[in-house]
Write a structure and sequence with these properties.
- The chain is α+β, with helices and mostly antiparallel strands.
- Among the domains are: 1-92, P-loop containing nucleotide triphosphate hydrolases (Rossmann fold, 3-Layer(aba) Sandwich); 106-130 and 425-517, P-loop containing nucleotide triphosphate hydrolases (Rossmann fold, 3-Layer(aba) Sandwich); 223-317, Helix Hairpins (Orthogonal Bundle).
- The protein has helices at residues 10-20, 29-32, 81-92, 96-103, 118-128, 132-168, 187-221, 242-267, 281-335, 348-423, 428-451, 485-506, 525-537, and strands at residues 41-49, 52-61, 64-71, 74-75, 104-106, 456-463, 466-473, 476-478, 513-517, 542-546, 560-563, 566-569.
- Helix 7 packs antiparallel against helix 9.
């Protein structure tokens, strides 16, 4: 007992934190520590499992946690707090959700067994009573079945592949074909062809030379000796006219100078511009006449010399043409082979023999290629038959082995299927659970009869993966959610005590402590008396009834006192 805020309800919360590192109220770690001191917290909890003592020490400070677990004096803690709590859960044999529902009940947090879904209700009992061992076997057989199924699928796939191959490659004819003989070699014909070809090529080349020689002869006949024979002055050879050209140039300059001189004389007036003396017109005229005479003589000589140069050029051109003709004549004369005949040789007969030999050789080669191709096809045909016959034997032998393995694995799969069904939730689990549920139903109704004066009766029905609950009030069916707070507290408490009692006899999980937090507030005086009477009759169960001040003469009183923001038990 204790007043508000002394920490009565914190006791089961501390136990939950110590054993599972969580609490059923969902309080954050920062809010669990003492509000006034805010220095973290230490929890030391001693408990025993089947007379074996254990101790858990929890130290939390500034967000970090250190957990130590002892079995007697031996430290069995793991490297991390998480793994240590896993070890602790294995020792207790209960998970947090189950533990909290079996240990702590209040008006706001009560046993959810009756109000849970049918499937979750059944799962709760399966886990609680250790029937999950059967489902573990089911999981083992299911995993083995998966492996066997995979192997069966592989064997079936292999069998189908082999059968398909045997059907696709079934031989209707297994006769091996012999190779055809090759035709006689055409080496002799090819040698004769090469010899005739050489002869024909020689004739062709010789006829080409004759034709070229005849061309040179004809060109030589087109040139006459008179075309290149020098006569008269031509015999003197090529003449130079460089001196004459020099005279022509000198006379042309005389003409130009005379023209300039006459123009100068004509430009003079009565007085000389240089000496300023009077000019004699007679002298000027005499000078002009002399200059004109020189110009006329020079022009006459230029005309004469140009005629001479033209005559020399014509003569030189004739000489050059005759010399060119002579060179052509001499070149053609050296090219003409007078020993060659002028008539070309006839190679048609030789060409006919060559064509005939070529045709014969080509026919032989074509026949050879056809026979080689045919022999290649026959060899491929024979190889395919031999390979298929060899592989057919191997595949047939392999198929026999696959069929034997299939029969063996199918037998194993059949046995596994039987085991799966036996250990499934509808097999041994359902059978075992149905018997346990019957016992639970009888126990719950015993407690209900005492707590409700025989008003309420509960009935459990196992159906497949569900556990249905039928509650009746004086024979009339009633929904669990339609009960009043006091009625629900009686039904929940009766069911909880029944579950715990059944657990103590069959399960590995045995919890000897129960907290009923403010549950009495919703019960009338008669209900409280009945509850105390029932709880006192339970052996091995330490029940803590939490209230603000209610006491009972038959119950031991523990008071929670708070001084200087620190609570203690008295």
């Amino acid at each position: 007992v204790g007043t508000n805020g002394t920490g009565k309800s914190s006791i089961p919360l501390v136990i939950e934190e110590a054993l599972f590192n969580k609490n059923s109220k969902g309080i954050k770690k920062a809010d669990i520590q003492n509000r006034a001191y805010n220095k973290g917290y230490n929890i030391f909890l001693d408990f025993s499992v089947e007379t074996k003592p254990y101790r858990v020490e929890v130290r939390r400070s500034r967000g970090s946690i250190k957990v130590k677990l002892f079995s007697g004096k031996e430290d069995i803690s793991s490297h991390t707090a998480t793994n240590t709590y896993k070890t602790l859960e294995g020792i207790l044999g209960l998970d947090f959700k189950t533990f909290s529902q079996l240990v702590y009940q209040s008006t706001s947090a009560s046993l959810q067994f009756l109000t849970a879904t049918d499937a979750n209700r059944k799962k709760f009992l399966v886990d609680l009573f250790g029937v999950d061992e059967y489902t573990k076997y089911y999981d083992v057989f299911r995993d083995i079945t998966k492996g066997i199924t995979t192997e069966l699928n592989e064997l079936t796939g292999t069998s189908n592949t082999i059968v398909k191959w045997l059907c696709d490659n079934k031989l209707s004819n297994t006769t091996l074909l012999s190779k055809l003989n090759l035709p006689e070699n055409s080496d002799e014909d090819e040698k004769a062809l090469r010899s005739l070809t050489v002869d024909f090529e020689n004739i062709r080349q010789k006829n080409q030379k004759i034709n070229e020689n005849n061309t040179y002869r004809q060109l030589l006949l087109n040139i006459s000796p008179a075309d290149f024979t020098l006569t008269g002055k031509e015999e003197d050879g090529i003449q130079s006219y460089d001196d004459i050209m020099a005279d022509i140039g000198a006379n042309k300059r005389i003409v130009q100078d005379s023209v300039k001189e006459i123009a100068h004389l004509e430009s003079l007036e009565e007085e000389c511009p240089t000496c300023h003396q009077k000019v004699n017109p007679g002298v000027i005229q005499n000078l002009k006449n002399q200059s004109q005479a020189r110009s006329q003589r020079a022009e006459s000589e230029v005309v004469h010399d140009e005629v001479v140069v033209a005559r020399i050029k014509r003569l030189n051109s004739i000489i050059e043409n005759k010399e060119k003709k002579q060179r052509e004549f001499e070149d053609l004369f050296t090219r003409v082979d007078y020993e060659l005949p002028s008539t070309v040789l006839d190679g048609e007969e030789l060409k006919g023999k060559i064509d005939e030999l070529k045709s014969s050789i080509n026919r032989t080669k074509a026949q050879l290629r056809e026979i080689i191709d045919e022999n290649t096809q026959r060899e491929q045909h024979n190889t395919r038959i031999q390979v298929i016959l060899e592989q057919t034997g191997e595949f047939e032998k392999e198929l026999e082995g696959v069929k034997e393995s299939l029969l063996e694995q199918e037998k194993v799969a059949t046995n596994l299927e039987v085991l799966k069904r036996s250990f499934s939730t509808n097999g041994l689990v359902a059978y075992k659970l149905e018997n346990l549920v019957k016992e639970l139903e009888d126990l719950a109704n015993e407690y209900l009869a005492e707590l409700s004066d025989g008003r309420f009766n509960i009935n459990f029905v196992v159906a497949n993966d569900k556990l249905n609950v039928d509650l009746s009030d004086n024979g009339s069916s009633v929904d669990i959610l339609a009960l009043s707070s006091g009625e629900l507290a009686r039904v929940n408490t009766a069911t909880l005590i029944a579950i715990r009692k059944l657990m103590s006899s069959i399960s590995k999980s045995r919890i000897n402590v129960l907290f009923l937090d403010e549950v009495l507030n919703v019960l009338d005086e008669m209900g409280r008396e009945k509850l105390v009477e029932v709880l006192l009759a339970e052996e091995g169960l330490n029940t803590y009834i939490v209230s603000h001040g209610w006491t009972h003469p038959l119950l031991e009183k523990i008071e929670v006192v708070k001084e200087n923001n620190i609570s203690r038990l008295e």
